[in-house]
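By way of example, what follows is a protein record of this kind.
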Amino acid sequence: MTKKRGVLLVNLGTPDSTAVPDVRKYLREFLMDKRVIDIPFLNRWMLVNLIIAPLRAPKSAKEYERLFDEKGSPLKYFGFEVLDKLIEKVDNSYQIELAMRYQSPSIQEGLDKLKDCASIHVIPLFPQYASASTGSVQDKVMEIVKDWQIIPDISFTSQFFEEELFLETIADNAKKMMAKKEYDHFLFSYHGIPERQIIKGSVDNHCQLGTCCDSLTDKNRYCYRAQCYATTRLLVKKLGLKEGEYTVSFQSRLGKTPWIKPYTDEVLEDLADNGKKKVLAFSPSFISDCLETTVEVGETYQEDFIKAGGEQWDLVPSLNIEDKWVECLKGMVERA
């Protein structure tokens, strides 16, 4: 009997519920990842377990209550719905599983199901590569399989922001909204990371956190910030936007150390101050509805923008279970 080709889809993860203990558990696992908070272990342990998790969990639990619905976390249930649709589209030579980097279903569980496959291809569901996201998934996978007696061929998709159907799905969703309403500015908001993580990954000291991100080269191919700007340029072209009509920014910063700029919360105030009243926001670093899209960009930033003097703030829907997005995944699976 021919062995199947294994595929593991991995998203970030979500608390099991909106209860404070579950949120605290999730935050501890997430923030104790050495690639997320890249400081010495003892400092990280004290920061996460004595300060961040205890103080942040109650507030985060209330935010997750705004996100969760009767089916639970959209990030998880959309993940399983996409998995089912993808399995229907590929032939039976594949075995495809879904895992979360943090919480359940775990990467360990997913890999155990694929252990007898002829090969395993891992697709972290992050369009742009960052050490704290894609790199963390790769790290965890290799940590697990290193103890296997037999390790099959293992490969990874490191980034997919240039995938045509990924871009088309976002553009299609945006065009539907642009056909119904008029906007005077477009904001592409990506999840932020500390500046030090960009510098640590710099090739030949290329990264200056400035105009070096205006083009993608061999030296900054894996620079997260450069990939975000490249993603924006590709989407801008598909949407026919002109220079000056759009802005790139970064959200969700944590702590007092510098994160990549410009910051979304500051940009939206500047837009309102400069007379931009109707903004359409994008979240192209996420493939599914989650806390950072639905609540942070879709609700909190909307409230902040209106308070700052804006009139209209809309968010382009995530890819979720769009057919083109499933076709995009099918292409990545089959090419791998």
Q: What stands out?
A: The chain has two domains: 5-160+323-335, 164-315.
